[in-house]
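Bit of a strange request maybe. I'm writing a small parser for C-alpha cell strings and I need a real example to test against, not something I typed by hand. Could someone generate the C-alpha cells for this chain?
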Amino acid sequence: MTDSTNNKPTDAARRLFLGRAALVVAGGVTVALAASSPAAAKAKQTAVKYQTTPKGKAACGNCAQFIAPKSCKVVDGDVVPTGWCLMYAPKT
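Reply from user aminoacidic:
Good idea to test on real output. This should exercise your parser:
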C-alpha cells in the first residue's frame, strides 16, 4: 500500500511489514533456543566430581539418574554402576 500523493508506504503497510518481521525473528530465536537448551546439555564429569568408586552406599547403580549399562541422564560420558558424583539422587 502506498500513499497516492508521494508513493511512500502507508502507516498500515509499515505496521503490517514490521509485525510480520517480528514474528519471523521471534520464531528464529525460539528455534535457536530450543536447539541449545541447557536441559539437553549434560554436566561434565569433572564439574560434578565423578569418581569410579561409590561414596558409602551411594553409587550410580542405585541412583535415579543412572541408565544401565553405563550412562546417566545428567552426566556426560560413560559412568559405571559403582561410581558416584555430586548429582547422586537415590532411587525412590
